[in-house]
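Narrative of accomplishments. A recurring question from our advisory board has been how the design workflow behaves on a single, concrete structure rather than in aggregate. To address it, we present the structure tokens for one chain from the evaluation set, followed by the sequence designed for it. No filtering or post-editing was applied between the two.
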């Protein structure tokens, strides 16, 4: 059982309990929060409360989150485009549309399911849902992924990412014309304060995020850029490019509502 306890600050007075709880617990979906409230696991000053209860300054809000059972991840015969493999690691060319690891709503058909079928052994550092996974790519992003077959390889690869001796470079076609030939975006990223499924550039409960980009080619309404990560936050490039008003073309989450592809 995870217990989150917080004291309502003066600037938070009058906020609904569900809005306040959602802003304080990363990764807690609205549906699960609503269920916790209905089960009496969200309490204000020690008493179960309703979602629309308004919190007063100085009140103590408690959120009790039972540990969820992880679904078993099974091997699946999914074709892999393996560019390199030895006794320690694999380099996979991940196609667009393939989810990297199981998560609620995606327990099958992922890269991890395919890896379990292909490999007898994978690094266990990532746990049951992420065996061998050293870094991720978003579902709709294609590109190379390095997978560790053992813990020693996993630790060395993770150290390379942390020390930035392994570089990750991405190509992105973005809206509008970027004037500068090169740029560096330093803006902290955290959960969106309203939509908890999204990330955003925020000041509170955020982590450092740095992205460098280079313009490769300009078109009439778009720009092709090469982006390099110095940190590895969820949706980092997409969030950062949207932050400077040049969202990735076709991005359904951080891009404009109008779909240029019809």
């Amino acid at each position: 059982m995870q217990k989150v306890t917080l004291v309502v600050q003066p600037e938070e007075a009058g906020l609904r309990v569900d809005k306040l709880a959602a802003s304080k617990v990363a990764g807690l979906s609205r549906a699960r929060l609503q269920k916790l409230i209905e089960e009496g696991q969200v309490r204000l000053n020690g008493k179960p409360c309703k979602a629309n209860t308004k919190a007063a300054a100085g009140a103590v809000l408690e959120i009790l989150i039972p540990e969820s059972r992880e679904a078993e991840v099974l091997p699946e015969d999914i074709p892999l485009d393996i560019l390199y493999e030895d006794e320690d690691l694999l380099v996979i060319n991940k196609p667009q549309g393939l989810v990297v690891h199981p998560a609620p709503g995606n327990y099958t058909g992922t890269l991890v399911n395919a890896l379990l079928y292909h490999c007898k052994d994978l690094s266990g550092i990532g746990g049951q849902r992420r065996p061998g996974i050293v870094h991720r790519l978003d579902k709709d992003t294609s590109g190379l992924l390095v997978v560790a077959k053992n813990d020693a390889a996993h630790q060395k690869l993770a150290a390379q990412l942390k020390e930035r001796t392994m570089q990750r470079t991405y190509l992105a076609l973005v809206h509008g014309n970027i004037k500068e030939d090169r740029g560096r975006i330093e803006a902290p990223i955290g959960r969106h304060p309203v939509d908890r499924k999204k990330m955003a550039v925020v000041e509170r409960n955020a982590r450092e995020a740095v992205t460098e980009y280079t313009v490769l080619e300009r078109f009439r309404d778009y720009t092709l850029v090469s982006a390099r990560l110095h940190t590895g936050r969820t949706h980092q490039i997409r969030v950062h490019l949207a932050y400077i008003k040049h969202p990735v073309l076709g991005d359904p989450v951080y891009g404009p509502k109008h779909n240029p592809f019809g």
